[in-house]
Amino acid sequence: MLDVDDHLVLRSWTTGDATALATAFSDPDIQQWNLHSFTLAEAEHWIAEMAQAWGAESSAGWAVARRPDEAVLGRVSLREIRLDAGMAEITYWVIPEARGQGVAPRAVRAISRWALDDLGLHRLELFHSVRNSSSCRVAEKAGFDYEGTLRSALLHADGWHDMHLHARLPDAPTASPGARAGA
Asked: Which CA distances in Å does 32 have to 22, 28, 99, 113, 183?
């Protein structure tokens, strides 16, 4: 478990979270940017796979949970962990009821500190569709600098999207409050 602040904690997914996961993935916005949905059985399977990925050191994911009841508000993860190269990709989502409350930036900042300071990674990358302005704001608020645009880089349900690339290094200052991707 990783404390974020007095209101949030990052914790392991449990089989008891399968309903919350399936419900979250029924949200059209989460489906738009994550390309799938989950039945209850698929959610249970995904939770089991996440535990295996931890063991293989290939990815790590946490439920972003509200204190004190540990209700699931979202997810933050390190995908494609490459310990030999000191790199990983950050991914996240937040349920509709928790949006606009700073949940995603706080969770991303917390897992970034852990990955860079404790795990010893050198570079974290964050990708989002250029059409997903909310994710761009999360990246900026979490201290990820905009580095460029990858053209036609990811297929979504509505076609190929250009993707913004943001990155954070251990010694880099956080993004300036007024910075905007592509500006």
From this structure: 15, 6, 16, 28, 25
Task: Find out whether 107 and 74 touch, Cβ atoms under 8 Å.
Answer: yes
* Helix H or strand E encompassing 139: helix 133-141
91: which residues sit within 8 A by CB, 6+ positions away? 75, 76, 77, 79, 126
User: Six-digit token pair at 119?
Assistant: 């795990």
- Indicate the domain borders of the chain: 2-168
Pick from 29, 54, 23: which is nearest to 129 by CA? Answer: 29
Contact 21, 46 (CB under 8 A): yes
Tell me the fold of 2-168: Aminopeptidase (3.40.630)
SS3 label, residue 131: coil
- pLDDT by residue, tens only, the chain of 183 residues: 889 999 999 999 999 999 999 999 888 888 778 777 788 899 899 898 888 887 778 789 999 999 999 999 999 999 989 999 999 999 999 999 999 999 999 999 999 999 999 999 999 999 999 999 999 999 999 999 999 999 999 988 889 999 999 999 998 654 434 444 443
| Distance from C-alpha of 91 to C-alpha of 38, rounded to nearest angstrom | 18
Residues in the chain: 183
